[in-house]
Amino acid sequence: MPKARRRSGRERRRRFVYITKNREYHVMDSLCVAVRDLQTGEWLEDHKALRRRLEGGVKVFPNGVAIPSMAPPELGDPIFFSYIDADEASRDVITSKLQSVDRPDLDDLVKYPPKTG
């Protein structure tokens, strides 16, 4: 029986699902392409994270100070997405704590809401 090969080097996958307490954030090439509510299973077409860049995690310290990290989010950290609003001001979307990271189901890829805006 052949042994499973471990790949070394950089991550090659382009699609990830970041799962928090209430939502799944579907990300492709660091861009949020879909958000699903975990209680209802519904795709959220107006969520602020849509079409926003996943920048990294947020480290929350015991004294309550939260500092964004440009490193990929780690389990237990909130994640943040950035965007520029109509006034060209930078805005951030910060989620609840990251519970897991997975790959999207192939069936979900065709269910993503249409791109708008």
Q: Give the % helix.
A: under 10%
Give the strand tally.
7
Question: What letter string, H or E per element, gives the SSE order?
Answer: EEEEEEEH
Specify the structural class: mainly beta
Total number of helices: 1
Averaged pLDDT? 86
Q: How much β-strand is present in the residues?
A: 35-45%
Low-confidence stretches: 1-5
- Give the termini distance in whole angstroms: 51 Å
Summary, kept brief:
It contains 1 helix and 7 strands. A hairpin with a 2-residue loop joins strand 2 (23-28) and strand 3 (31-37). It has one domain (15-109).
How would you characterize the overall build of this protein?
This protein has 117 residues and is mostly beta strands. It has one domain (15-109). 3% of the residues lie in helices and 43% in strands. It has one helix spanning 106-109; strands at residues 15-20, 23-28, 31-37, 53-60, 66-68, 78-84, 90-102. Strands 3-2-1-7-6-4-5 form a seven-stranded antiparallel beta sheet, with no helix packed on it. A hairpin with a 2-residue loop joins strand 1 (15-20) and strand 2 (23-28). The protein is globular, with a radius of gyration of 16 Å.
Task: Output the keywords.
117 residues; mainly beta; seven-stranded antiparallel β-sheet; 1 helix; 43% strand
